[in-house]
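Archive transcription. Copying these from loose printouts into the bound notebook so they stop getting lost. Printout 1 of 2:
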Amino acid sequence: MNDFKPKDQKNPSGPVKVQNYKVWVDRNLCIGAATCIAVAPKTFQLDKEGKAVILETADKEMIETIIEAAKACPVAAIFIEDEKGNRIFPK
């Protein structure tokens, strides 16, 4: 298992602020498919429970890439809102 640092140690799956967006993973929905990691490896990693967590390097990823990763999730477990609280994904 890689050593990785979640952006928020207390809430490794978020919600966290990435650039001006709020991003979080619903751990009840997440099935550990890891498609988010394939699309946005600087943002997502699986923890020892096989659930996606948001990495402290997420700010180095383009928000478009993070949105693509959310869209790639087979169970739509990744949520993204803009700074006004508008849901970007899933709609």
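Printout 2 of 2:
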Amino acid sequence: MALSSVVWAQAPKAPPTLDQRDSAKMQRSLTTMLLRAAAVPAKGKPPQPLRTTFTDRELNAWLTEDGKDNVPVGLVSPKVVFTGANTMTINGLVDLDAVRKLRERGRLDPMAYLTGLMAISMTGSLTGAAGQAIFDVQSASLGNVPVPKLILQELITYYSKSPQFPDGITLAKPFPLPAGVRDLAIQRGAATVVQ
């Protein structure tokens, strides 16, 4: 009797879901990149370039599983789709109150009237070469309303602030790629970084 209850209590765990497997694969890719960035090259011998490829499915799974602590507070359910040569769409929900309350707003400031959690959608390009990247947005909307670049820049600045980017990212201006990444290429469904 005691043996059967021990066997029953140690029932096998459910196998990982597809999202968990994709997230784990993305985490392994990120760990490989971070280890490469921290490695000290041998004297007189530059390291061979390291290519790491990951899919948008792996990235999105990571953002909801293992990497959810890396998503800025106020950005909910982000989803990235690599649509073609260095192009992508980004969808999610943004907390407009957090951005609006950053500073005093005048009556002519459109951010004074944007409140609550709202769906955002952006289509743009991300290119990376020689250790620098440029993010440029071709179109963006909050709900079904197109977003002027001035408001979009304020949202991107707010949600891209980090220890590495204390002032956030400015649209169409270069910013350094992290972890010693030299080049970045996006194609439909996948991205490749070279360190």
